[in-house]
Amino acid sequence: MPRIPKKNRSSPKTARYAAIETLCRMEQSRSPVRPLLEGISAECRLPADDRGLAMNIVYGVLRHRQYLEWLIGRLCRHPRHKLDPYILHSLEVGLFQLFCLDRIPESAAVNETVEAVKTAGLPVRLQGFVNGILRESIRQRPTLPGSDTDPESGRPWLNHPTWLTDRWRRRFGEDEMRRICAGNTEEPPLVLKINTTVTTRDKYRMSLAAAGIACRDGLFAPQALVLPAYQGAIPLLPGFAAGHFLVQDEATQLAPLLLGPFRAKGRYLDACAGLGGKTCSLVELERELQLRITAVEPEAYRYRKLGENLQRLYPGHGCTTRQCPLQDFAAAEDRFDGVLVDAPCSGTGVTGRHPDIRWNRAEEDLIRYQAVQLALLYQAAALTAAGGVLVYATCSLEAEENEEVIRLFLDRHPEFQLTDPEPLLPAAAGRFIAHRFFCPRPDATIDGFFAARLIHR
Questions:
Q1: Is-above-0.90 flag for pTM?
Q2: I want to staple 416 with a disulfide (CB 3.0 to 4.6 A). Which of 164, 170, 209, 454 is the partner?
């Protein structure tokens, strides 16, 4: 168990301090980094600008970790595994600022990082150690490689754990594996789904232009807008409070379309609603087709966010929400014309957008996820009416969670049939269909995703 330093209560908590604390707690708990950072930022009472800087540093360290580890190994005589965890993450934070960020002066990067170590209550000798390594890195900068090329291979850094790159190499080939890793190192653009019940994509594009925010239409989803350079807070975008949009990648926007063709007055279930992104797509069809929508989410935080998102986007909506496991819900409900199961998964298709995933997962997790996914799919099958549609989706690239889950499910449920999703998707998305699965791999335009459309015959 790593030693937890005693905090210096008299020192102000800064963005660097919050970043180091977040990386330490993530390593200890393997928890998602965003809620950790939000909690620590609240503890430190960071202003909005500092919260944004802390997030940029944490995500940047996670996207460039292999490169930063190489630098530490080059600059430090102590083996990495023998370093105090707080010191290790302090060096990552300092070196990321020095070698990967252009806008932070060297003196600020060094001094603020050392001050964070002091605030954490570590001994003066360790403060001096961090200070010495960071200043030595500045002296050696002309002889050290940049963040783009591994000096040993002469190719870009992979910045992913070996177990994951080995899997992708075997499945996709060397070049495709390296393409995915390189893309995941870059910060992805912000993608919005426009709420068509209150505005249109053309009108909202004009609102962004009036605010001086560059955007372009999505390439695949009909209501997608991409903001390639926006770095501000989401609530500061025009129309946020009025429910003009939600943040959602194009692959996720397309998934609910696979429940079609929708039946007028039909019953539809989002069986793993999460924060409600896909539920929102169904609610937009509610008034036009008089659909009856139900969303189920067991986890308290996600369920609360689901309610907040529905209220912001669709006040007075007719969607029924339930906070309970799908198994408990299944025992009491009739059948639905369409059921969407966006199952919990490893998330290896979105490690560019959520770089903590690549470091929080292990290969043995895949079989554990598969068991959960199959259980959910079996429960959802019992809720799908004859002639109804069952859509299974993940944001994983791994066969154990995708094709293998569908094969195992169909072996046990021959009354379901896998169908081609392409007729239900925009023509531009047809390139992502393979073996009757919707399965884009991550690139600069779309997240990695998987979906299968099954008909209850």
A1: yes
A2: 454
